[in-house]
Amino acid sequence: MYQYRQALVRLRRGETDREIARAKSMGRRKLAALRDLARLKGWLDPEAALPGDEAIATALGEPKRARTTLSGLQTHRERIANWLEQGVSGAAILGALRRDHGYGGSYSSVYRMMVAIAGAKPVAATIRLTFAPAEAAQVDFGAGPMLADADGVIRRTWAFVMTLCFSRHQYVEFVWDQTVATWLGCHRRAFEWFGAVPERVIIDNPKCAITKACNTDPLVQRAYAECAEGYCFRIDPCPPRDPQKKGIVEAGVKYVKGNFVPLRTFRDMADLNAQARAWVLQEAGVRTHGTTRKAPLVLFELEKPLMRALPAAAPDLGSWHKVSVHRDCHVAHDRILYSAPFTLVGKTLWLRATDGAVTIYEDYRLVAAHRRGRRPGERISVPDHLPPHAVLFLAHDRQWCVAQAGRIGTACAELVKRLLDDRILVRLRAAQGILRLKDTYGSDRLEAACARALYHASYHYRTVKSILVGGYDREPLPAEPAATYAAGARFARPAQSLFDPDAITRH
User: Fold this and answer.
1) What confidence tens digit (pLDDT) does each residue in 283-304 have?
2) CA dist 431 → 404, 423, 445, 459, 506 (Å)
């Protein structure tokens, strides 16, 4: 209505339509119509008050609209609206209209209809969240550049970003995965980077932090809860499918991906993180932020004194895992085996893994503790965790047999040595069996039985046992070794024939 009021003022001054039209605010034809309306309403009287915008608009009536051609899609508008609510794409809608409804128009017409339908929907109002100094930090993961790992395999990296909500100062670290151990380690290094801890940490609902996402009662991962307790911060998960609640770090991740990653080359993960730290301090931290209009590092100097101090001793952060005790009395974690008491075989336990130790719990009762293994395939065992018979089997090795036989006597030691030195068979069980005869017959009788077995050159477990069962160990040994064959044996050759060439010829 501003143009009409200005035109009325100039008309009341007596200016002609041509003079007013030179200002190009209104054409001569429209001015002529306005002059007739003003003369009819009495608005040209210089002594009368100028009418208000509402009176002028009422007198002018509804503006005439340009004639539009009715689209051939108007009959399909409701159908297209239903398809849009189901998430159907424009190309699929065009194909369905042509295939099933005989539509012969172009995709542009369909697209204009889709825009008109979308524009008709009400836009939800929102507000910008504001935070006091030291009140909160927001955390998120974002896709990083492709990089070769230690084995030379090209893999995707992930950017862990923690942004302080007040100052917008960031901690950026690139990692290989989003596991619980990585999540906890990144939090520790982020707090050490800031030198302080915010009051709460706003996160999405990643599996490494939240085991059950819920709008009202989310279930926090056990290890992350211990981290929050150790560093004295509170966890604030966003509602499911509502990432706008942590828009600060969402924008921070986009800033890292759009301003740091492009046009840079990285040798390895260490070089990537070194460049990221330098970029945060030298570029991202000193820029004028688009929202706060101040440099993040300048605001961080005001925010840091208000944040919580780091604990005197860093918390021992560990990840929790459900494990099953296998038949070999071991549980598996990260491709390393750790022993557990044999009485728990088949049960499900909790394993807590830290950087240097692994502990195993039955509910909340500690049942095993081990050093953290470093080599895949490593087996870490405690003898007390194994079944007693298995421990005895493993303990009675070659060295044990030799030591036990030496305590019994020289004959027993010699017989056991001959058994273990067999070049064809592994005769460890025979040696163990001979030593077990001590429990039944005593050391003296076993020593005598071993001496008789050596006398007859019969180095067998059954020989020693037969001697003991028959009581032959109590009889004295002959002065000379017994002949292998009797003198009158049927197939025995005379002794002299073995050395007499003539006898050999006769035979």
Assistant:
1) 999 999 999 999 999 999 999 9
2) 10, 15, 16, 10, 48
Bridge partner list, 330: 339
Residue reference for tokens 């398809």: 83
d(CA 438, CA 52): 124
DSSP codes joined into one string, 349-363: EEEEE-SSEEEEEET
Short-list 252, 246, 264, 243, CA closest to 289: 252
pTM over 0.85: no
Alpha helices in 2-106 (DSSP H): 2-12, 17-22, 28-41, 53-60, 77-85, 90-100
pLDDT digits (tens, 9 = 90+) for 424-475: 888 998 999 999 999 999 999 999 999 999 998 999 999 999 999 999 999 8
Those residues whose C-beta lies under 8 Å from the C-beta of residue 406, and which sit 6 or more positions away, are 413
**Three-state DSSP class for residue 348:** strand
E strand map for 239-394: 319-324, 330-333, 336-339, 348-353, 357-362, 365-371, 379-380
**Angle ∠(138,201,215) on CA atoms, nearest 5:** 95
With a CB cutoff of 8 Å and minimum separation 6, the contacts of 293 are none
Q: Which helix (H) or strand (E) is 174 found in, with range?
A: strand 170-175
Q: What is the rounded end-to-end Cα distance, in angstroms, of the chain?
A: 148
